[in-house]
Amino acid sequence: MLENLSSRLQSIFSGLRGKGRLTEEDINGAMREIRMALLEADVNFKVVKAFVARTKERCLEADVLESLTPAQNVTKIVLDELTELLGRTDSKLVLSGRIPNVIMLVGLQGSGKTTAAAKLAYRLKQENHSPLLVACDVYRPAAADQLAALGGEIGVRVYRGAGQDPVRIAQEGVQDAIDNLRDVVIIDTAGRLHVDEEMMAEAQAIKAATKPDQILMVVDAMTGQDVVNVVEAFADRVDFDGVIMSKMDGDARGGGALSVREVTGKPIKFISSGEKPDSLEEFHPDRMAKRILGMGDVVSLIESAVRVQQEEQEAVEAERMARGNLNLNDFITMNRQIGKMGGVAKLISALPGGDKALGTGEVDEHALDSMEIIINSMTKEERERPEVLNGSRRARIAAGAGVTVTEVNQMMKKFNETKKMVKKMTAQLDQAQSSRKGKKGKKGRARGGFPGLGGMSLQDMKQLQNMMKQ
Fold first, then answer.
1. According to DSSP H, which parts of 127-249 are helical?
2. Percent of the chain surpassing pLDDT 70
3. What is the pLDDT of residue 457?
4. How far is CA 408 from the centre of its chain?
């Protein structure tokens, strides 16, 4: 999503960087290209007109044209305006002190509303809440069954009620949450293929009956320019609080994501870019703007890594690494953790210039997959004791994995290089710990530390690693 727009904008800035000074004509030409790029991305034409006017006015100021790096200044201005367009500050979902909190989801049919409800429930569950899903779509065939299946998958209870009255089901769902000590209720309402009076009246009735703390509208990012008419209609009749932008991983041009905030004033709170329960992410306008301009999103990458790294597993792996006992099972663990973060493609795309590298085929997205296939062709002993891998064993492994012996040798070379690096780091950490113990005496041993590091704690390791990086 938005890859074409990102590519166009980066190309425009590349052209400007080749000039030592910018003239008014250069700025006008760049603004025309930016206007066309936004329109081709399906951004609403009124939004494009206002965006280009603001950007052009700032770019024509004397301190930009006469500076030593005018192209960088123009890029900074476009970044600022894109961030403003998407919403200057983050808008997190804030729950009130009311128990239970009621969150109502609205939107057109096919926007991904039911899936978004389950993803939101999963996210809240991970944050130590006890959510309840309420199935109020009594019109779409098997809608309640779909929500029940999704709820079962993530371990969240679903209230379906009886009968065909969505308002009554919503009220009963809230009462059920009270009776069963659930602190958040997520109401999945019915959608239609288009905005109509019946749909709006029903949404208003559910709102009046349950008095939701938050109303979130689920918008399909692939809708295009028509998204403006849809969100305006819901804003007028239901007055929602924020937007969940679904299907951000689709192939459409994605301009709707750049139009919603400007048209309605309502913030985008979450974006969804996958089918997995954990694919609902908080929306950060500044990070999205940087991604569009090819500057990467390293902060989100780090946050994603933290989420998938469980503390207990981290401690066990850190102790094994500290003792220099890396084996090939560790490589598989790393591979699977990267998979939980979205795979190599998502990892690379979050780095500056990553989208461009993926687009030109410079990155092998399946490198880790082939590595895991090779390791899985080994016996348990070979994975735990790689030193036993002689020529005949490597030939057998290559045949089993469907690769050449050379590829097996290359993978083992990478493994041995990594192992050497870890041993070197361990020696540095032990040396630092010895110095620390010399100053503090016997009491310097940290409680809960790793024996291989003289009792250093995991936090100590992190601090020393940061010092080494500096």
1. 143-154, 166-179, 197-210, 227-237
2. 68
3. 42
4. 33
Q: Is residue 269 domain-resident?
A: yes
- Burial pattern 412-443, b for ≥16 Cβ within 10 A else e, equals beebeeebeebeebbeebeebbeeebeeeeee
The first and second tokens of residue 67, run together, are: 């500076």
Q: What is the C-alpha to C-alpha distance for residues 470 and 463, in angstroms, rounded to an integer?
A: 11
Bigger pLDDT: 145 or 26? 145
Q: How far apart are CA 131 and CA 143, in angstroms?
A: 19
The domain that contains 10 carries what CATH number?
1.20.120.140
Report if pTM > 0.90.
no
Distance CA 341, CA 333 (A): 13
| 441 domain residue, yes or no | no
The answer on 71 and 175 residing in a single domain is no
Contacts of 269 (CB under 8 A, 6+ apart): 91, 92, 93, 216, 242, 243, 244, 282, 283
Tell me if residue 267 falls in helix, strand or coil: coil
Q: What phi and psi, each to the nearest 5 degrees, are found at residue 156? A: -120, 130
Q: For residues 230 and 44, what is the distance between their CA atoms, to the nearest angstrom?
A: 13
Same domain, 179 and 313: no
SS (H, E, C) 152-181: HHHCCCEECCCCCCHHHHHHHHHHHHHHCC
Residue 275 carries which side chain, given as an amino acid letter?
Answer: E
**Per the domain annotation, does 460 fall within a domain?**
no
Owning domain of residue 24:
3-86
- Per the structure, the count of domains in the chain is 3
Residue 458 lies in a domain: no
CA distance 427 to 468: 13
Residue 254 to residue 281: CA distance in whole angstroms: 17
Average pLDDT of the chain is 76
State the pLDDT confidence band at 312, using cuts at 50, 70 and 90.
very low
